[in-house]
Amino acid sequence: MTYLTAVFVIVASMLAALCLLVVLRRRITPAKLMETNDVSGFYISVLGVLYGVVVAFMLTGVWEDYEEARATAEREANSLVNIFRLASAAEESQRHQLQELARSYARTMIEEEWSAMERGEVSARGNELIEELWQRATGNEPRTGAATAAQAQLLAELSEMTEYRRVRHLQSGSRLPAILWVVLIAGGVAMIGMSALFGVKNPRLHVLHIATLTLFVTLTLIAIADLDSPFQGAVRVPDDSFRLALKTMLHR
After folding, report:
1. Given this model, what pLDDT does residue 144 score?
2. Rounded distance, CA 134 to CA 101, Å?
3. Which has the closest alpha carbon to 66: 190, 252, 229, 251?
4. What mean pLDDT do residues 36-58 have?
5. 91: closest CA among 134, 156, 147?
6. Torsion angle, CA of 172/173/176/179, rounded to 10 degrees?
7. Residue 185, Cβ neighbours under 10 Å: how many?
8. Which of 63, 69, 144, 236 can pair with 171 through a Cys bridge, CB separation 3.0 to 4.6 Å?
9. What is the mean pLDDT of the chain?
10. What is the model's pTM?
């Protein structure tokens, strides 16, 4: 979600909540609402606790998923650097090709892959480079024991990097189930609606209460939505790990 979209959602939500408050106050006088404040207060308290638990659970879950997505990208970049370093012990015919492919992979992640994931896609060039790395790593038969050991380590790192790439693609497309969004949105609407039914003598104070509550609920839902898309939106996993990997490989 972009910042402009987030601002629009916040403003629209607050206007809708305030319109609801105005309609209710015109149809039901504050004096009538104050007669049921004890009952309304009890239900608002129970609903607030339940909704708070649900929101905390969802926010913690998407934050952990976001951190795991960032860790996956970092592990992939670390494996790429390890492949580059292990290639220096490979046969002469493989060394330059493997190291150049590793640099090209890092550049592709920075220049193409991250922007493609923001659109919900993946870079075709990234897939091609992975295939080329596998072909080059397994293309020659090692002639010495040292070369054999180096190739075994290189293939292990390449296998891990391929796995991290696949996991990253899955994380990029993973989303909260629709039923959970129904719970979050319905709970937020219920909270704001019940608060609008609470009897308050001062209309300005009531407007302030509803506006503040709506702002907080909307901001929380926007945070969950943004973290639920770790490679899209305003808050997304950066490509810093691959930039550092490319810098490391260019200085060797």
Report:
1. 67
2. 10
3. 229
4. 88
5. 147
6. 170
7. 12
8. 69
9. 89
10. 0.85
